[in-house]
Predict the 3D structure of the following.
Amino acid sequence: MSKLHDKLAQQIPGLRDEVKTLVKEHGAKVISQVTIEQAYGGMRGVKSLVCDTSEVPPDKGLIIRGIPVAQLTEKLPEEVLWLLLTGELPTKADVDDLKADLRKRNGVPDYIWAVLKAMPADSHPMVMLNTAILVLEKESVFRRRYDEGMKKDQYWEAALEDALNIVAMLPAVAAGIYRMRFNKGDRIASNPALDWGADYAHMLGIPDPKGEFAALMRLYLVLHSDHESGNVSAMTTATVNSALSDLYYALSAGLSGLAGPLHGLANQECLGWVLDTNKKFGGNPTKEQIKAYAEETLAAGRVIPGYGHAVLRITDPRFDAFLAFGKKHMPSDPVFQTVSNVFDTVPDILKTIQKIKDPWPNVDAGSGALLYHYGLTEFPYYTVLFSVSRALGVCSQGVIARGLGLAITRPKSVTTSWIKAQTVAPA
Ligand code: NMX
Ligand code: MLT
């Protein structure tokens, strides 16, 4: 058994007992209320989910297990995976063990490539990724063991097996999709000497003489790894998984939510918007030209991608981390400069629109320019990178949920007639 398995085996029974006691002794305590506006408004702010892997205070941004994400930017994604699952940073021996375990699990079955090749050549890369994950469900340890009559207190172990197998295979699957979909030539074999993020960079095949692209990939995979559990992809993954559909079904469903333009597709749309400004103005636009283009976008009833957030009310610290990377490695890159100028311009415009609650950039506002700089210019692919990273968080959430024995998700819906009846004052 791996060190990660053993660590969780030590922790999970105690956590389960703690939750049982909390519910038994304080189950009736009210922690949130729901207004009519929230019922129609995407349940914004309703506290009705529990997620222990991370939290997102509106005035601070992502905190993973008590550590602000700005303090995790030098960590490997494997270290963050360990942190998400156990609540502690791993020792060197722990992380070496996890790396070796992932390496053992990273072979992708040949049938995946046959399925992907059979898909229309112009399929969106996110459709290819979600199809591959769903087809891989055949490998689910959770489903096999459930069919064999596994006991409830063993669910988390089978979920951990699925989570680790998925995380291990994803870079090769995602890199294979990149090379196939964008005619980059044959797939590139995994290099067992590399860490998970650097190996993904290597399998994509982007020339990287100085190792900067690998460094960007590690950073990217850390920054997108988790964002508590109320966002569409995490909540969907958790809901599907709560039916004891295994993590292959659950992740594929969750990432279908990430593929939406209001969620993870915004990174593709954001770079598109930045490049459009450069095209429209025949080069790097001035701040006045950016302002004019932003106003034109808003007047057309469209959103400025990469700006605004359902929870945050500050500049996303993940955006800050990407901006710092860009300033260090590519300060004079014209696309990066436009991203930086958009940051100086757009919040002031959005602040004048009363209905917009957060005028600041989110994680998607800057990452595309950095990828573009290193030659990863196929922006329909960008949400796939987000997905590989987000799998770390949502799969960790799934393992913990099965460890805690959380119930199937089933809130109560009401009709508009019922809501109208609540607004009538009693006679
Ligand atoms: N540009 C134009 N309008 C905006 C923007 C924006 N960037 N952000 C919010 N609004 C509008 C929003 O469409 C809504 O309009 P209406 O009432 O007419 O439907 C109004 O402002 C109120 O929205 P908020 O309450 O501020 O935001 P909400 O919580 O509903 O939505 C987002 C959050 C992220 C969906 C929204 O800010 C948005 O659409 N941003 C652009 C897309 C984006 O960057 N998405 C990525 C999110 C991060 N991620 O990685 O997933
Ligand atoms: C995310 O990382 O999932 C996004 O910032 C969206 C969110 O948290 O609502």
Summary: The two ends are 67 Å apart (CA to CA). The pocket of D-malate (ligand 2) is lined by residues 227, 231, 310-311, 362-363 (CB under 6 Å). The mean pLDDT is 97.
